Amino acid sequence: MIGTDIAIDLGTYGIKIYVDGKGIVVNEPNVVAVRVENEEVIAIGSEAYAMLGRTSDRVKVIRPLVHGVISNFDLARYILDRYIRQVGGTRMVMPRVVVSLPCQITAVEQRAVVNAISSVGVRRVYSIPEPVAAAIGAGIDVCTPHGTLVIDIGGGTTDMGVISLGGLSISQSLKVAGLSFDDAIIRYVRRTYDLIIGERMAEDCKIAIGGVLDRPQPAVYRVKGRDANTGLPAFVDLQSSELIEPFLDPALEIVRVLQGMLEKTPPELLGDVYVDGIVMTGGTAQLYGLDQFISDKVKMPVHVAQDADICVTLGAGQSMKFIEDMDNKQYGVVNPLSEVY
Ligand SMILES: Nc1ncnc2c1ncn2[C@@H]1O[C@H](COP(=O)(O)OP(=O)(O)OP(=O)(O)O)[C@@H](O)[C@H]1O
Ligand SMILES: [Mg+2]
Prior knowledge:
Helix content: 25-40%
Number of domains: 2
Number of helices: 11
Bound molecules: adenosine-5'-triphosphate, magnesium ion
Largest sheet: 6 strands, mixed
Strand content: 25-35%
Oligomer: single chain
CATH class of the largest domain: Alpha Beta
CATH topology of the largest domain: Nucleotidyltransferase, domain 5
C-alpha cells in the first residue's frame, strides 16, 4: 500500500482526522468563514470559530453540516480538502479513507459525503456507522456475538445502536444533541431576563455550569449579551440549578427515543446490554449528570466512555485494520466496514 490511510469523522460540530500510525492529528470546529460578496473562504476551523457571533455585513460564518448531514456541499468539500492536504503534506499519495457516518443517513446524504471526500483525490472510501466506530473507540470488541448499546451524543445529532457481530442490530438517530442544550440556554435567558446572548456564550456557559442534575457545589456563570428592551450591554449571573429545567426537554427527548429502541431490541441482545450497561460517547456525553439522568429513566447502568468526545474518530481509525481483511476477502471474518467508493 502506497500512501497513508486516514479516518475522518465529519461532525456537525467538529472535523476530526486520524492518521494511521499517528493518531488524531486534526480536531477542529467544523466552521467556515466566508466573504459575503463573493463567497470566498477567509478562515476555517478554530480561526473561523473565533469569528462566530462577531461577524459583520462583510463576513459570515457557516457550518457546512446541519444535524450530521452536509447542507453546504462546496464548503464541506473545501474544509475536507484543506485538512486532508494538511495531514498528508506533499507525501500523500491518494490515501484510503474510512469515514464514520450517522446510522440513519439517506443514500443521497451518504453520497454527498462520499463525493466530497472522493473529489479531493482519494483512492478508496470505506464507511463505518457512527455507533460502531464509537464502540470500537471505547475499547469494545464489536465482532463477537454479544450486544453492546452505544449512544453517541454529538453537537447536532444523537446516534444510538445495538451492535453485535460487527454491525447494527437496531439503530436510531435524532436531531437533538449539544447544540439543542445551547439553544435551551439562549431561550431561557431571553425569556427570564430579557437578555440576548450568542451561541458561543451559551456553549461556554453550558460547559462551565450546565447539567441535568443538581451539583453538590452549585456554580455560577456570568453570561453577557444585550438587553432586549434597552439594546444596551447587560449581564446575568446564572446559577447552575436554573439550567436543569430548560435542559429537561432535550434530555427527555433523547430518553424517549432510547426507550423506543430498547423496546425493539431482540431479547438476547437486551440481556447483554442489561448486564454491561449502556456506553455513552460524543462531546455531549460529558454534560453534567446526563449519564445518571438516562440511567435513572431507563433503569440500567450508563457509563461515559473514556475520551468520549473522540471515541468515534479513534474507532474509525482503529477500524482501518479491517481494510486488509476486506481486500483479502478473508473467509469467516466479521467486518464492520463497507466499501463505498
Ligand atoms: N465538557 C462538556 N460538557 C458538555 N458538553 C460538551 C463538553 N465538551 C464538549 N461538549 C459539547 O459536545 C458537542 C460536540 O461533540 P462532538 O465533537 O461529539 O460533535 P460532532 O461529532 O461534531 O457532532 P455530530 O456527531 O452531532 O455530527 C458540542 O455541542 C459541545 O458543546
Ligand atoms: Mg459525531
